[in-house]
Amino acid sequence: MITLKSKKEIECMKYAGMVAYSLLEELKDFIKVGISTNEIDKYVENYIKSKDCYPTCLGYEGFPKSACTSINDEVVHGIPSNRKLKEGDIITVDIGVTYKNMIVDTAYTYIVGSVDKKILELVENTKKALYEGLNVIKSGITLNEVCKTIEKNANKHGYGVIKELTGHGVGYDFHEDPYIPNYSNKDSESIILKSGMTLAIEPMFSLNKEEVWMLENGWTISTIDKSPTAHFEHTILVTDNGYEILTGKRE
Ligand code: MF3
Ligand code: CO
Ligand code: CO
Predict the structure, then answer these.
(1) Total Cβ atoms within 10 A of residue 164
(2) What gap in Å lies between CA 122 and CA 182, rounded to an integer?
(3) Are 246 and 11 in contact (CB under 8 A)?
C-alpha cells in the first residue's frame, strides 16, 4: 500500500528535509583528503541532533552509525570507520533525518581532491539522471516513467545500473511501498503517482560492471569488479502539477 501524507506530516518532512539539505551542503567543505569517515559520521550526528531531529540510520535494523559512508566501489551502507579519505576517492554520504516521527532520505556523492575524469563524469551523470528522473514526475503518470528516464541516462553513457538496490516510498518509515527500480519494469508500469505520495528516488550507477556483493560486515554492498559507483538521492512530494524536492532544490 502506498501512503499519502497529510499537510501537517508534509510540513514535518519539509523541516527534516531542510536540515538534511543544509547538512549535505556543509559537507562539501568538510569532506577533504585526510578526514576519516568516523569524523563525517560525528559531524552528521551532531548536526542532526542540534536541529531537534534524529539521525534515522542510527540503530535502524541494527545499523551502528548515523550516516552511510560508501567509498569508490562501495555502493551503499558503508559503515563509518577510521578509514581516511585519499586524493582521487569519491564518497557517498547517505542520511536519514527524522523530525516528529516523519522521515526523509537523501544522498550525495562527493569528490575528494582531484579525481579521474571518467569517474568525475560518472558522478556528474548520475546526478543528472536523478534530476531528469524527477522532472517527469506529476500526479497521473506511471512510476515506470521515472524508472525509464533514469535507465536511459545510464544507457546513454554505458554505465551499469545496480539492479539489487532501489528507491522507495518514505515518510512514516525509512522504506515504504513502492520500491522504485532504476530501470524499466512491469511492476512500476501499474503504479500511478498521486498527489501526497512521498518518494525517495535514488539512481546508483557503476562505471563498469554492475554486479554487487555484500562485504563481511553484513552491511556494505560493493561492486564485484571494484568498479567505482555514484549515488544521488532526494525525497520528493508528488503534487498535482509536478513535484517538490523536500531535501533540496531543483537543478
Ligand atoms: N538511506 C538508505 C536508503 O537510501 C537506507 C540506509 S539503511 C541503514 O534507502 F541502516 F544503513 F542506515
Ligand atoms: Co538513502
Ligand atoms: Co533511500
Answers:
(1) 14
(2) 15
(3) no
CA of 61 to the centre of ligand 1 (A): 10
Which residue has a Cα nearest atom 11 of ligand 1?
A: 77
Query: Distance between CA 215 and CA 203 in Å, rounded?
Result: 21
Predicted confidence band at 12 (pLDDT cuts at 50, 70, 90)? very high
Q: Which residues contact 26 (CB under 8 A, 6 or more apart)?
A: 43, 47
- Is this model's pTM higher than 0.85 or not? yes
Q: Which residues pair with residue 182 across a beta bridge?
A: none
- Domain boundaries 7-245, corresponding CATH code: 3.90.230.10
**Residue 188 confidence (pLDDT):** 98
> Could you read off the pLDDT of 104-120 as tens digits, one per residue?
999 999 999 999 999 99
pLDDT category of residue 173 using cuts at 50, 70 and 90:
very high
Helices (H) and strands (E) in the chain, counts: 5, 15
Atom 7, ligand 1: which residue's CA is nearest? 57
